[in-house]
Specification:
Length: about 70
């Protein structure tokens, strides 16, 4: 198993998770200020970054699945 690749994916996922948290905090602030346009823009950004996180998780899963299949 390529541990470097898994570590790199883990770092990417942590970075994306940090960005997601920041966006969520901004959304909460904008909603409290009743800024509909900004809230919607940030929500779209949240959707995109969430999709990135899902893609990274899928790549991690594929790498691990590949290694587990070698056992069979």
């Amino acid at each position: 198993m390529d541990l470097n690749q898994l570590e790199n994916l883990g770092e990417e996922l942590r970075s994306v998770g940090h960005k997601r948290r920041q966006i969520v905090e901004k959304i909460v602030a904008e909603v409290q200020e009743r800024d509909v346009e900004s809230s919607n823009d940030l929500y779209m950004e949240l959707i995109n970054i969430s999709d990135q996180a899902i893609e990274i998780i899928d790549r991690q899963k594929q790498l691990i699945d590949k290694e587990v299949q070698k056992l069979h």
